[in-house]
Amino acid sequence: MTATVHILTTGYAADRVACTVTLIREDDLIAVVDPGMVAESRACPSPALILTRG
């Protein structure tokens, strides 16, 4: 299976800085790549919520 990458939040650099957070799926692997720099934690949806929506 080819890996799929979903962008959960898009990073930016202006007055403040935030990183892009992604969800990667391949076979049995489900990984959230989060450098820990989102503006607010609620800006990044729950991976479980995303997976239940397909």
Notable characteristics:
54 residues; mainly beta; two-stranded antiparallel sheet; elongated
Description of the structure:
The chain has one domain. 11% of the residues lie in helices and 39% in strands. The chain contains one helix and five strands. Strands 1-4-5 form a three-stranded antiparallel sheet, with no helix packed on it. A hairpin with a 2-residue loop joins strand 4 and strand 5. The radius of gyration is 12 Å and the shape is elongated.
In short:
With 54 residues, this protein is mainly β.
Q: Estimate the global geometry from the Cα principal axes.
A: elongated
Q: How much is the radius of gyration in Å?
A: 12 Å
* Fraction of residues in helix: 10-25%
Structural class from helices and strands? Answer: mainly beta
- Characterize the main sheet: 3 strands, antiparallel
Separation, N- and C-terminal Cα atoms: 16 Å
The SSE string, one letter per element, is EEEEEH
Strand arrangement, major sheet: 1-4-5
Number of DSSP strands? 5
Strand content: 35-45%
Round the mean pLDDT to the nearest integer and report it.
77
As an assembly, this protein is single chain
Number of domains: 1
